[in-house]
Specification:
Shape of chain B: globular
Helix content of chain A: under 10%
Strand content of chain A: over 45%
Order of helices and strands of chain B: EEEEEEEEE
Order of helices and strands of chain A: EEEEEEEEEEE
Helix content of chain B: under 10%
Number of strands of chain B: 9
Largest interface: A-B, 25 and 28 residues
Number of strands of chain A: 11
Distance between the termini of chain A: 31 Å
Oligomer: heterodimer
Strand content of chain B: over 45%
């Protein structure tokens, strides 16, 4: 158990819909990262927040957005969903923002868009 | 783009040591070498990381070449639970604006 929690574990929805994925980081961790893992793309970094501020952006679509709240939990919002958005979404957290910091990953949310 | 090169797959027998190689010929002086592994249907799990010196922890050892252009993750006694995809990742200490880039990794199979 990494100490990072993600809800829900599974999500099934239809194309065009909007969903929100939630992540609670490990106690004391200020950085939160979101990753997407699909069969054809592998693990891809989406976005990072550090203490409430956006720190880095990866291959995140404009239809996707995220935020980190004052209590440090984070939400990833996916809208106008397409079949290709079906994937595992992982959240990770670390104490700081530097590249030498270990990232601890949650169990993931499996999204299926029908 | 991933800055590391790993074999696609490796096999090991249970209770034998496993050496997982990683090439990173373009590594810079501030790049840390991280190893993560991912078991089926689980999130990636931290294994070990280092900068210049060899590192040991309860899970594994990390051997870093003197020129730092390659490294090897060593599992001292493979168990069936070690069957996973192992990722070697470089990340600079001051990575503001950058992040972990996961390549395809090495799929390790452990035979009983």
């Amino acid at each position: 158990d990494s100490g990072v929690t993600q809800t829900p574990k599974h999500l099934i929805t239809a194309t065009g819909q909007r969903v929100t994925l939630r992540c609670s980081p490990r106690s004391g961790d200020l950085s939160v990262y979101w990753y997407q893992q699909s069969l054809d793309q592998g693990l891809q970094f989406l976005i990072q927040y550090y203490n409430g501020e956006e720190r880095a952006k990866g291959n995140i679509l404009e239809r996707f957005s995220a935020q980190q709240f004052p209590d440090l939990h984070s939400e990833l919002n996916l809208s106008s969903l397409e079949l290709g958005d079906s994937a595992l979404y992982f959240c990770a957290s670390s104490v700081g923002a530097g590249g030498h910091k270990t990232q601890y990953f949650g169990p993931g949310t499996r999204l299926l868009v029908l | 783009d991933a800055k590391t090169t790993q074999p696609n797959s490796m096999e090991s027998n249970e209770e034998e040591p496993v050496h997982l190689p990683c090439n990173h010929s373009t590594i810079s002086g501030t790049d840390y070498i991280h190893w993560y592994r991912q078991l089926p249907s689980q999130g990636p799990e931290y294994v070990i990381h280092g900068l210049t010196s060899n590192v040991n922890n309860r899970m594994a050892s990390l051997a870093i070449a003197e020129d730092r252009k390659s490294s090897t993750l060593i599992l001292h006694r493979a168990t069936l639970r070690d069957a996973a995809v192992y990722y070697c990742i470089l990340s600079p200490r001051d990575n503001y604006g950058q992040n972990f880039v996961f390549g395809p990794g090495t799929r390790l199979s452990v035979l009983p």
